Amino acid sequence: MKVNDFVNLIFLLCIIINYSSGEQLQCDYIKHSDGYNCEMRSVFEENKEITSVIGEHKFGKNDTDVEVFFITDSSKTKFVPTKVCGVLTKLTKFDIYGTTISELKKEIFEDCTDLKKIVIKYVKLKTLEEDLFTKVDNLESFVLGFTHVEILPQKLFANNQKLKFLDLSFNKLKQITTEFPNTLTMLSLMNNDCIDGHYDSRSLSGSTTIDKLVKDTYRKCAPNKTSINSNETSYEAIRASIIEDQISENENKLNALEADIENLEVKMTNKIEENLRTLKAFKSDTSDKIDNIKKEITGFEKTSKDQSEKFMTSKNKLDKDLSNINLKLEKNEDLKRMSGDLRAEINRNENLLVTLFCFQLVMIAAAIFFGVYKNCYYNRNHGARLVNDQTNPNF
């Protein structure tokens, strides 16, 4: 066997071993408002480490574009796969919905360094591991609801120093022992067994933190778990005492509310009277303004009428001037025609004069020619007669 073939065989064996110890994650890829989602379709009968993902991507996306991983409440899986963030490396949100899920291992959130929000709802959890979120350094929001959790571990959020939003509503919480980070700005404990409250940054005064506020408010609801399990009557007594305190507090709030209502009635009456006075003053001022506007409109109408009459007068004058101009233009046209006729007549006369002049020249030339001819003829005849007379004395 060649060295290259041996190396390829070793590599193939490593791949086979790797896949035999892991599992493929089957995803339906969906695009939601919170990002590109992977909805898990695999069903796991035990905690399996994910080594690859299969599924048909959409919108030209790939595994590095997946931002949200969620298990729906319709899934029948009993376990959540571990190290999902190892293959879906850009996850920012992790949602777990499933009535058949009863435990969560810390390995689920390994390598989830970019994870910012975790939602766990409708699961049969009774507790959470204390180091569940140890490696989720950037966690900002955690929602836990509709579970059977009675107590949260004290150090559950010890490494989550960026946590701001914490919703623990609709669980079975009976006591508060958890240490909340000072970065927390909203905490909801609504609809728990003996805890029911909502806190945000507006509830704080001075240097009071949400953690201190919750502990002070529910200090009577924090017996140790052993006493709750061993002595239910003691717990009921504590709960009854809490209810009495709440009733007393509510009565005080009700009395204060009644006083506030009375003060509000007085304030409203005074405010209504003040508004009526303001309305009357406004009405009077408005009437004066309306009268002034009417006067301005009347003046504007008169001015407009005068301007209109002036305009019509100017228009009529302009029309008359235009008529005169047109008449003059027509006369000028007649003069032009007469001038043209006269020029043509002059041209004809000039031609006639030239003809007459030429005729006169011809006549003069003819007269001159005739005179010269006559003179020549006379001289010749007279000369001949003289000769005859000289040669013929009898003549």
UniProtKB/TrEMBL annotation:
Membrane spanning residue stretches: 352-373
Signal sequence extent: 1-22
Coiled-coil regions listed: 240-274
SUPFAM superfamilies linked: L domain-like
Keywords: Coiled coil, Leucine-rich repeat, Membrane, Repeat, Signal, Transmembrane, Transmembrane helix
Gene3D superfamilies hit by this protein: Ribonuclease Inhibitor (3.80.10.10)
InterPro entries recorded: Leu-rich_rpt (IPR001611), LRR_dom_sf (IPR032675), SLRP (IPR050333)
Protein name: Uncharacterized protein
Protein source organism: Chironomus riparius
Organism lineage: Eukaryota, Metazoa, Ecdysozoa, Arthropoda, Hexapoda
